[in-house]
Design brief:
Catalyzes the transfer of the enolpyruvyl moiety of phosphoenolpyruvate (PEP) to the 5-hydroxyl of shikimate-3-phosphate (S3P) to produce enolpyruvyl shikimate-3-phosphate and inorganic phosphate. The protein contains twelve helices and 19 strands. It is an alpha+beta fold.
Amino acid sequence: MTYEITAPPSLEATVALPSSKSISNRALIIHALTGGAVQPSNLSDCDDTAVMRAALGLMPPVIDIKAAGTAMRFLTAYLAVTPGEHVLTGTERMLHRPIGILVDALRSLGAQIDYEGEEGFPPLRVRGGRLPGGRLEMQGDVSSQFISALLMVGPVMADGLVLQLTGNIVSRPYIDMTLCMMREHGAAADWTDVDTISVRPTLYATTPYLIESDWSAASYWYEMLALYGGRNRIRLGGLSDGSRQGDSVVKYIFSLLGVRTNFVCGSDGTAPGVELERRMARVRHLDFDFTNCPDLAQTVVTTCCALDIPFHFTGLASLRIKETDRIEALKTELRKLGYLIRSENSSELIWEHGRCEPTFAPIDTYEDHRMAMAFAPLAVKFPGLRIRHPEVVSKSYPRYWDDLARAGFSVRPVEAE
């Protein structure tokens, strides 16, 4: 399937954002560990959360998490502390996403996990039971999902968990979000040093829990507004100024790209959200370290190119092992629109106004939801922009194309080339 997208002449929209996938998946694991009956409310309806709910609800002998990387990491740890034997598998791409660091960590804490295929990669056979736990040293520059997976099962280990992180600690806001959610459910878990987290053995408490809207999803609407001139406005529901989501930093990044964020409440005071408005002032060059918010990189890269703002972005090493190699994917697809960006040190992206002859070939999405959603707003500058396999957005934002259509975009299926 291919979509052809044309933007409206102006943008005035109110958008009901999806719930946070990151919070939903953590809430589901913690809920399962409580053994309680009170399900988290306002759970995300995306693919990643759906596979997590199905796995935890049915617990079949073979659990296929498809392309859900979060589910693979979180369920590996959850199954390791849960009685029973299961095989965890996924898509072909998932079977090439490394998981050895998490498996080694769990094994050192007493887990029984075997590789069903290539060493260091899924599928995994997990034989679960109560683990002794203890002290563990782990690299801090690995996926924060590995760290969060370990932390969430720490309270149910006999001796709890003391996790010391070595080197540079990446995506710290996601770790802090996990710790906060654990404490909200009764766990005793916190930083005890700049590089050490302690989790005491305790029982999680069953408690009602409301999932907030997704700041990552909001980023694409920030991008759209940044690309428009004149007086345009967007309202996004369910976002609050005190959010613990790391991607809430998008409000700061886009303040440098000409978008003002105003926090508002509904007339009854119970419906928080933001109103975005364009202002003309923006930076002439942007340097930014995405170590703590790598999922925003594609949005900001495409925005800067379209606004003709050169950039130097660092902290992108984790993009190599996402749904696709996002660094190479960005370089390839932006070349179709006439932009030549380059990478350095496997963790940096640089653009210095490099241009080439555009082909305007359809944008490929590489089974990556964020490629589709980050490129779609470029229809503001490139009317009739085409995107292949647009259905990938279901991984995190199933209503994305419907929301674009409601905002006045033409989203038209065309024959694939």
